[in-house]
Each structure stands twice: as structure tokens, then as C-alpha cells.
Task: inverse folding
């Protein structure tokens, strides 16, 4: 019998079945259990355990000692503790918009949570041209509640500072600092650049000293601006969807950082979906219809976030000086400036860096993929450099449409 109480080891599927039987009380004693490893992310092992007698199922997520994407990244297994505690906080702040968590094991560095197999990963669904009319409403509620309600505007300052200490996340922050803010903006050996895009990247990004200076400023803002308890990796691969439901998962990159980072990541990945649709849908009427829906969703996410942010500000604010005339607008302007920058960084790093998105890599036509990547890089660069002037939903779509016409 395996010992799950003394020291950590990376579990296999058969180990997980034994773990469930000996360490948890999620199933009946006579349960007929099977386990499948279903993780397709860059860091963790995700196991789905099913009782074939009842159909009951759970997810067990275990943190390994190195990232699955590359063993160059040595990452603390404490990230699983962070994810468990973050999900509990997010569930309280935005009930129904994250999975329920049931248990955390500090020895095996794993957490047990609700199985969302009746949902689909949003990136996959969007690549199949599906629409989710409630998504913009759901995701903006999640972001406003988790970002504004964990800030100094609402929280007791001492309690907020204690949370900052609880969620210092140096290993995963370092990954973001390297892969998002640093490596895409020079000819880094670890970058993985599509050959037809290399010269464009070199001329338009790597040689642009103004752009590089702005990314340096943004990197230090990311490292030092403990504004809100951010998800830290809020892309369409970290969201499960059904037509009537949205669930945000995988907050292991969470820490106290700039609130706009989460909002910008959502917008950038909707743009990747837009570029995928443009390159892969052959029927012109279907293509324009789906692109129009994505453009509308980009606008709705931006503007609903702004509207809900200000409404919640008025309802929940506790910091006296934040009531001064003009301060709410000043604060939101800063969040939206960071949103534009984060969207630009995400578009660049997913195109040039080591961690790509399938929206782009699955485009089989070399010419169409190169075009999509050049559009993504051009938009990303503009979002970074023009972040002072990109604040509402139509600003994002305007830049997207203008760039499409160039290529």
C-alpha cells in the first residue's frame, strides 16, 4: 500500500484511485472507481475519478515539481495551496462562477474539486465557432467582484496586506515576468517563432526601442503594484462554459497585482478567437457573422466591466478618500490603461513565446497563419504604446479592424 502521508511523489492514475479510496470520503466504500489523467495545460496533472456505479465524479489536481511545458521551469508545489485558497475566496466573492473545492492535501500537493465535465473549455468551443451570449455578463461579474472587492478601496487595509503576504507567488510570477514581459521583445533563444513571422518580429518589435522601454515600465508595474488579488492567467483555456454557465478555473498564478492584467488577458484571447475564425471559416456569411459576434463580445466585456466596476464601487466602497470627486474615474482610468497593456502583452507573447495558443497554431495554411500572427503582433504593439487612449470596447475593435485592413 502506498504511503500518502509522509512525503510527496507525483501520482499516476492507479495511485490516484488508491489515494481516493484511502484518503478521501468522497465515494461509497463499494464504489467502482476509474481514473483518467486529462490535463492539457503547461503545469499540472489533472485526474478525473469516476464511480461507475453512481456516475459521481471528482477532479484531483496535483502540482508537479517542474512545469510540464519545460523542465527548465522549477516551480513550487505550493501553487496548489494557493489555487485551493484562491478558489475558496473567489467562490465567496463570485458564487457559481468558479468550481467548488472540497479538500487540499499539503503532503501530496493536490486539491479535490468539482468535476466540470458537463462544461467545455472555452477556447475549444470558440474554435468550433460556438456562441455564448451570457459570457460577457458572467465574466465581467467575476472580474469586478474578485478584483475590486479584494482591493484597498473595499477591504480593511491590514486584512488586505495580510492577503498580499499569503499569496506571494514568486515562482509563477517569475514565469510571467519572463514569458510575458521580457522574452517576446528580444530574440530570446527560448522563444518559439513561426519561421514566416521572424523577420516581422525582428523589425517591428525587437528593434523598436520605444516599445521595449514601455514593456520595461510595465514589467516593473506588474512586479510592484499590489492592487487586487488577480487570477493571473485568465485566458479562454482557463474558462469552462455552457450556454447558461461560465466557470473560471486554474488560478494558480494568482497574486496581488494590477487588476487590468486579468481583463486584458480575456480581451486578448477573444481577439485570438477572432483571428482564428477569420483564417479558418470558409463560408463568407458565416465568417462575418461569427466575427461580428466576437467583436460585439469584446465590446461588451470591456464596457460591462466598466459599468459594473463603477456601480459596485458606489455600493461597496469603504475607503473614505476614495469618495472624493473624480477619484473613482481616476482609478478606473488606471485599470483600463493596464487592461490595454496586458492585452497587448498577451497578444505578443502567445505569438512569439514558448506558450502558444491553439487558435493560431491550428491554422494550417501557412500564409493565413502568418497573416494572423502579424495582425496579432501589430495590435499588441498598439495596445501597449497607445494604452492611454484605449479605454472602451469600440477602441479595441477599431484597432482590430484597422489592422485587418493593413494585412
Result:
Amino acid at each position: 500500500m502506498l504511503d500518502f502521508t509522509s512525503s510527496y511523489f507525483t501520482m499516476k492514475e492507479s495511485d490516484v484511485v488508491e489515494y481516493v479510496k484511502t484518503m478521501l470520503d468522497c465515494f461509497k466504500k463499494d464504489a467502482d472507481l476509474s481514473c483518467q489523467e486529462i490535463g492539457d495545460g503547461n503545469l499540472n496533472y489533472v485526474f478525473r475519478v469516476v464511480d461507475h456505479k453512481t456516475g459521481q465524479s471528482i477532479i484531483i489536481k496535483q502540482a508537479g515539481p517542474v512545469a510540464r511545458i519545460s523542465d527548465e521551469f522549477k516551480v513550487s508545489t505550493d501553487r496548489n495551496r494557493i489555487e485551493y485558497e484562491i478558489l475558496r475566496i473567489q467562490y465567496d466573492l463570485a458564487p457559481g462562477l468558479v468550481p467548488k473545492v472540497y479538500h487540499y492535501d499539503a503532503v501530496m500537493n493536490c486539491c479535490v474539486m468539482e468535476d466540470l465535465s458537463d462544461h467545455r473549455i472555452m477556447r475549444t468551443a470558440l474554435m468550433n465557432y460556438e456562441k455564448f451570449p451570457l459570457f460577457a455578463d458572467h465574466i465581467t461579474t467575476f472580474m469586478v467582484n474578485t478584483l475590486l472587492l479584494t482591493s484597498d478601496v473595499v477591504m480593511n487595509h491590514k486584512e488586505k496586506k495580510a492577503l498580499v503576504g499569503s499569496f506571494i507567488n514568486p515562482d509563477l510570477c517569475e514565469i510571467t515576468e519572463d514569458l510575458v514581459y521580457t522574452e517576446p521583445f528580444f530574440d530570446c533563444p527560448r522563444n518559439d517563432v513561426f519561421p514566416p513571422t521572424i523577420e516581422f518580429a525582428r523589425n517591428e518589435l525587437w528593434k523598436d526601442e520605444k516599445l521595449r522601454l514601455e514593456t520595461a515600465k510595465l514589467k516593473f508595474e506588474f512586479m510592484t503594484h499590489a492592487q487586487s488579488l488577480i487570477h493571473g492567467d485568465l485566458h479562454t483555456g482557463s474558462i469552462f462554459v455552457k450556454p447558461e454557465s461560465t466557470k473560471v478555473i486554474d488560478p494558480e498564478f494568482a497574486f496581488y497585482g494590477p487588476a487590468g492584467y486579468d481583463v486584458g488577458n480575456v480581451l486578448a484571447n477573444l481577439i485570438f478567437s477572432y483571428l482564428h475564425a477569420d483564417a479558418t471559416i470558409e463560408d463568407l456569411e458565416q465568417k462575418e457573422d461569427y466575427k461580428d459576434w466576437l467583436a460585439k463580445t469584446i465590446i461588451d466585456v470591456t464596457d460591462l466591466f466598466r459599468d459594473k466596476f463603477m456601480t459596485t464601487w458606489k455600493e461597496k466602497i469603504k475607503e473614505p478618500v476614495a469618495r472624493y470627486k473624480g477619484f473613482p474615474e481616476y482609478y478606473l482610468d488606471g485599470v483600463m490603461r493596464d487592461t490595454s497593456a496586458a492585452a497587448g502583452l498577451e497578444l505578443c507573447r502567445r505569438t512569439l513565446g514558448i506558450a502558444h495558443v491553439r487558435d493560431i497554431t491550428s491554422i494550417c495554411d501557412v500564409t493565413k497563419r502568418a497573416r494572423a500572427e502579424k495582425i496579432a503582433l501589430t495590435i499588441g504593439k498598439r495596445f501597449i504604446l497607445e494604452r492611454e487612449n484605449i479605454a472602451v470596447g469600440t477602441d479595441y475593435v477599431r484597432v482590430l479592424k484597422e489592422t485587418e485592413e493593413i494585412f
Remarks:
- The chain has a mean pLDDT of 95.
- The longest helix spans residues 284-316.
- The chain has two domains: 13-114, 120-406.
- The beta strands are 33-37, 44-51, 57-63, 101-105, 110-114, 120-121, 228-230, 239-242, 245-248, 255-257.
